[in-house]
Structure prediction request, 631 residues.
Amino acid sequence: MSTEKSPVKLFQTGENFYSHHYFGSHQTVWENQEGIIFRVWAPNAEKIWLVGDFNHWDRSIPMKKDDEFGVWEVVTTVPKEGDLYRYLVKQSDGREIFKIDPFAVFFEKRPNNASILYTVPEKKWRDGQWLGQRKRQDHFKKPLNIYEVHASSWKFEENGTPFTFKKLKDVLIPYVKEMGFSHIEFMPLMEHPLGESWGYQLIGYFALCSYYGTPVEFQDFVEACHLNDIGVLIDWVPGHFCINDDALAYYDGTPQFEYDDPIRAKNVRWGALNFDLSKPQVQSFLISSAFYWIDVFHIDGIRVDAVSNILYLDYDEGPSLLNQEGENRDWEGFYFLQKLNAVIKNVHPYVIMIAEESSSEIKITGSIESSSLGFDYKWNLGWMNDTLRFYEMDAAFRKYNFHLLTFSFMYMMNENYILPLSHDEVVHGKRSLMHKMWGDRYKQFAQLRNLYIYLMTHPGKKLLFMGSEWGQFLEWKSGDSLEWIDLEDEMNCAMQHFTKTLNRFYKNEKALWEFDHLAETIEIIDADNKEETVLSFIRKGKVKKDFLIIILNFSPVERKNFTIGVPFPGTYEEVLNTEMKEFGGTWIEPNQVSKTSNKSFKQFGYQIQTIVPSLGAIILKPKQVNTRVKK
Prediction:
């Protein structure tokens, strides 16, 4: 006798991680005819009918309930591929309401929201070489430089409509490759009814938003990315969902996907509902969603949104509760995230799991056995906030606030970090990165180049939001295209050229990523030069001679004959200077090669002198040095 559990039993115990193969709509053979079986979980509904344009939205196709598991199903030959459908749910209180199929893989274009009967065809993928390479390489020891994209506002057609993935494949991929980014990260691509939510208020956890094209077009896009050595990451929202009455909210008339307690169910800050992550059926639903995007679209990683909202009972702006220990820790959310990472890593160990999380109370990255959540990376939001505060500041006050830049060196190895300059910082009156910079337009560009050097040379992986690569001045607007007209201006064009040059420099310099999450990757030269407001440090690779010296000047004063310590005697040459004319600066010639003198500087036995441009940064590299001599 088989002891194997059925798909529905596994769903009930929180262990069906492929529940989309059971629920939703699927082709089947019924009474020797090809038909379609529909299944939906709604344990407290009184009745459910399958309705659509195939039966004029009437009650002619009732569904039958399995009382043991609360699953409704019907097999029918009436609907055809491409038909619209919904479930008409008579809820526990007798109210009748049209609901979406929670497992639908395609929807009507908003503002309509009927599910579409759609079968994603089997694809003969051509990205085997990429997937094999992904298995062989350790992403912790490789460059990770992410271009963050909002799919519908990157670029518009001439008629004012956004590019779909069919067009993005031909335009976005060559652009990202030319710019030298290693990965594209998309803000949520799942179905959502309101564009202004940027995709963070979801209704369809298994459906590509039809606004962006078809699932097949997105598959082709990902494949083309992989063929061009570009990885694809997606944002995903397992903590909360759209409150719309015709979607997941109180699906059967009772708290089904959400918490029973209305205080825990309601998310005041975002006007949403919180998933009850303690319910095994919800765990099956959400983890299945993650597997769906990994398996069907070959994505390379998932960035889990709003992890703090999952971990802390008092994270929201509204009233909150405490746990049984009288604390604010949400243990149900904690264990769900551990389970999510454990299950995905068991099947797909090379898929990158990223947490967007803003606290420091819980270990986010690392092994679950060490009591962390098991993520690969955590967004370093503290670094982002401190850094941008510093760069927005009048240069006269920076020496009094130098700690904003140097504090991150105290905790940079606590987690595996991604340093994000993300969409959150260029919207809602926060101003674009370019507009945040202090001073006139020339100084703003100079400091933006300086900022990107700091981003690229600070330990941690990298993320930059679209448009920031050329210094778009206007804030990002999710309903408008990026300001591509900016590139008719020579300063914006030079800024874009600088970002491309820096991206390629990062990719080619192993010292910037080989030991990214190990303390030996960095040695501080001088983090105490507050008076001149200059920061200097070394980034190191595996090979002793493979290191870079970074000097950042945050003041509008050129530092002539600037002295720093170096580890070995010999000569050092400048390999990057933000103030070169080709990048929008004024320098025609780079600094001359620097030769060491046998004078000590802090922990170093040798020193060199160079010139550091005002509001600029330079990177030096050993040319001929004697690494056998102790520093």
